[in-house]
Specification:
Layout lengths: L3 E7 L7 E8 L4 E4 L10 E5 L7 E3 L3 E3 L5 E3 L6 E8 L2 E9 L9 E10 L2 E5 L3 E4 L2 E5 L6 E6 L5 E8 L2 E5 L3 E8 L12 E9 L41 E2 L15
Antiparallel strand pairs: 1-2, 1-4, 2-3, 5-6, 6-7, 8-9, 8-19, 9-10, 10-11, 11-12, 12-13, 14-15, 15-16, 16-17, 17-18
């Protein structure tokens, strides 16, 4: 079989996330670095390109939970929903139909809002904003990075943006986001949306909630359990319980954010 490429991301305790390419040989199970790495105090997270086993939210929108379960939550157009809520991070998504019609039940995640200890991040089709200031313009090939600290000077996240992708690393999570687009039937390209390609949970003791977050600590439903278009059979409560008032809202039934 063909060797597959792996991207490794690591973040020193002093900050400054970096990446490197590896090749995985499926015959020998060897992971071969393309270039040598410097030793040091690092945390390594491996992402197998094209993997179908990592938690994600993609397209219109399809969810894969931390427990590996596939399910859908269509939500409502022009509405913010909580995706992940934990003690030190709030991660919200703006669901919107591509056509702009309230009758169109096919929604996409068109914006993302993140709240951390003392910081807010807004990701939309044109830019990434950190605390209200533009950090990165979508499409700009320059790679930019920033370490965010709280009022006590402790690092709460490292954010890295390049072209059409954004990653941020907190003590408990590593999240990868990429812009997507679709051209159904060969028609003109539709407006950009976002795929949350991977969310790594780095601390197993965490008990997050949210449309995706809750799957980190819930059991898989029975195979014959009914699963509806709004998370029925998977999520706690009903999908409207996860509506928040804004990009940085924490005002929903199962909120866990406490900072």
């Amino acid at each position: 079989s063909v060797n597959q490429q792996i991207t490794a991301r690591w973040c020193p305790s002093t900050g400054g996330c970096r990446s490197a390419l590896f090749v995985w040989d499926p015959v020998t199970s060897a992971i071969i670095p393309v270039a040598s790495l410097s030793p040091g105090d690092i945390r390594v997270t491996l992402h197998l390109i094209g993997s179908l086993t990592t938690p994600n939210i993609v397209f219109d929108p399809h969810f894969r939970g931390f427990n590996g379960l596939k399910y859908d939550v269509q939500g409502d157009t022009d509405t913010w929903f909580n995706l992940l809520s934990d003690q030190d991070i709030q991660f919200n998504g703006f669901f919107q139909s591509i056509t702009g019609s309230v009758k169109d039940q096919k929604t996409y995640v068109r914006k993302l809002g993140v709240v951390l200890d003392g910081h807010s991040i807004l990701i939309n089709s044109t830019a990434v904003e950190v605390d209200g200031s533009i950090f990165h313009k979508m499409g700009d090939h320059a790679e930019v990075e920033q370490i965010l600290t709280n009022s006590k000077g402790a690092a709460v996240a490292t954010i890295l943006a390049s072209t059409h992708s954004v990653t941020f690393h907190t003590p408990a999570y590593f999240i990868t986001i990429a812009q997507g687009s679709t051209t159904p039937g060969g028609k003109a390209q539709l407006p950009l949306f976002f795929n949350v390609e991977d969310i790594e949970l780095l601390e197993a003791s965490r008990q997050p909630h949210g449309l995706l977050g809750q799957t980190a600590h819930t059991q898989l439903p029975k195979e014959d359990a009914h699963r509806g278009p709004q998370g029925e059979g998977v999520i706690e409560g009903v999908y409207t319980d996860y509506i928040v008032s804004s990009a940085f809202g924490t005002d929903f039934k199962y909120n866990k954010f406490t900072l």
